Amino acid sequence: MRRSLILAVSLIAAAPALADDWPQWMGPNRDGIWRETGVLEKFPKNGPQQLWTAEIGGGYAGPAVADGKVYVLDRVLAKDVKNPSNPFDTTTPVHGVERVLCFDSKTGKEVWKHEYSVEYKVSYGAGPRCTPTVHEGKVYTLGSMGDLYCLDSSKGTVLWKKDFKTDYMAKTPVWGFCGHPLVYKNLLICLVGGGKSLLVAFDKNTGKEVWKALSPASPGEAGYAPPTIIEAGGVAQLVAFQPTAVTGLDPMTGAKFWSVPIAPDHKMSIMAPQKSGDLLFVAGAGKAAVTLKLDSAKPTVTEEWRGDGKTDGVYPVNMTPFIDNGTIYAVDQPGMLRAIDLATGKRLWYAFEPVIEQNQIEAFKGAGSGTAFIVKNGDRFFLFNEKGSLIIAKLSPQGYTEIDKAKLLEPTSSAFGRKVVWTYPAFADKCIYVRNDKELICFSLAK
Fold first, then answer.
1. What gap in Å lies between CA 47 and CA 44, rounded to an integer?
2. DSSP letter at 39?
């Protein structure tokens, strides 16, 4: 008996640390949780070790990591072509190519690339927005102008493709197509637009349309929020955050279960709706924030609270909040990290430091649309902010506690008079993979 116990303990001690891929936006389960163990507690004196860097073009699309490869989208301008000096210009055609790049995750060596011509007419046209979705030997990518590709993940060959503009007469949104494609069972579910095709489900293997549902409020107003799956009321529900409403549907048929009005400013429905227990939180720029109570027996909802935009709630722009033990952590529209009570919307605290690395008063106006991406690992959080820094921190209803911080790369995009990096990182193989408009870098976060 004692010998068996010793052997069991020895096997546990010898077991390798848990490793995870990061095959899509927000991780394996799209929940912003990094489940790997063996990760450092603080950074080395000179910051985390850089393992490799690869030259890439412009874009806001984060990397995905799966099966020893890193996938990322970028954009390269045509010869002698420049982006408009006004980032809000959506009328001047800008010629170039979008590329799907595949690198070896250990060395950064390019494995393959797929590229196609594209003419941009979008605001803030640095490049593609959507993180690739890697699943069962395929990689699904969506470009800023609505080019959807299904590629062989090992070779980069095209298996099937769609053009949302020609196939569904979808008008390109002001900031381009941004809804990260979602694999659910045999489907690839996409935010498309067009007539009665705000959402379209394709057969993930063939590209054949399985169903389409909902209509944009008007052409070009499909919004930007990724399709999101939750379990509630005894069934799976597909939640769509539109510019005028949040809606629950049957993910296998597109049939509507329920819908609640919510209208962020400038049609900026961006965050993925977040579920915690029996509550669902959705918010956007302006005074748009609502928490819904999910029925336990059937797919319906009731309104729990709605924010007033002044004294309660939180209104994120470029990031999806993280809910932990009944507290919402999100970067509010003015640019500070806020903690909010999920059940009531009550504001608990704010801090500008994790976003813009400055201590500012609540009324500070110089960090509009401030951005930091929040990922949980164990009992602490990793925050990658718009300054290009990675922060290890404790977040609680009582406050924000910074454990350590390291600068990883330089911001290269311009926004509201400051340089920013607005790209969700990937965490895999005890590493972080980050990009700007010039390079993709891998840093070790191993203990």
1. 5
2. B
- Count of alpha carbons within 13 Å of 16, Cβ hemisphere only? 7
Contacts 24+ apart (CB under 8 A), 25-29: 25/62, 25/64, 25/130, 25/131, 25/133, 25/180, 25/226, 25/424, 26/272, 26/320, 26/424, 27/375, 27/427
Handedness of CA 205, 211, 215, 219 (dihedral sign): positive
| CB contact at 8 A, 296 and 278 | yes
Domain count across the chain: 2
Q: What is the DSSP letter of 346?
A: B
Find the domain containing 141 and state its range. 18-161
User: Would you say 83 and 413 are in contact if contact means Cβ atoms under 8 Å apart?
Assistant: no
| Strand runs labelled E in 31-109 | 50-55, 64-66, 69-77, 94-104
First-to-last alpha carbon distance for the chain, in angstroms, is 34
CA dihedral 134, 38, 433, 419 (to 10 degrees): 130
- Report the sign of the C-alpha dihedral through residues 423, 386, 75, 438, in that order: negative
Q: Which of 161, 192, 217 is the last residue of a domain?
A: 161
Q: Which residue's entry shows tokens 């990096």?
A: 421
Strands 228-232, 235-241: pairing is: antiparallel
Amino acid code (one letter) for 427: F
In a domain, 84, yes or no: yes
The reply to whether 179 falls in a domain is no
Q: Could you give the CA distance from residue 65 to residue 174 in angstroms, rounded to a whole number?
A: 29
Which of 161, 188, 204 is where one domain is finished? 161
List 99's β-bridge partners, or say none: 74, 115
DSSP for 267-319 reads G---SPPEEETTEEEEEETTTEEEEEEEPSSSS-EEEEEE--SSSB----SSS
- pLDDT, tens only, 197-235: 999 999 999 999 999 999 998 887 899 999 999 999 999
| Global confidence as pTM | 0.95
122 occurs within a structural domain? yes
- From the CB of residue 35, how many other CB atoms can be counted at a distance below 10 Å? 15
Q: Is the pLDDT of residue 13 over 70?
A: no
Q: Residue 112 domain-assigned? A: yes
Cβ partners under 8 Å of residue 301, min gap 6: 248, 258, 260, 280, 292, 293, 294, 295
pLDDT, tens digit (0-9, with 9 covering 90-100), for 318-375: 999 999 999 999 999 999 999 999 999 999 999 999 999 999 999 999 999 999 999 9
In our burial notation (b when 16+ CB lie closer than 10 A, e otherwise), range 402-430 reads eeebbebbebbbebeebebbbbbbbbbbb
Q: Which residues contact 87 (CB under 8 A, 6 or more apart)?
A: 123, 124, 125, 414, 415
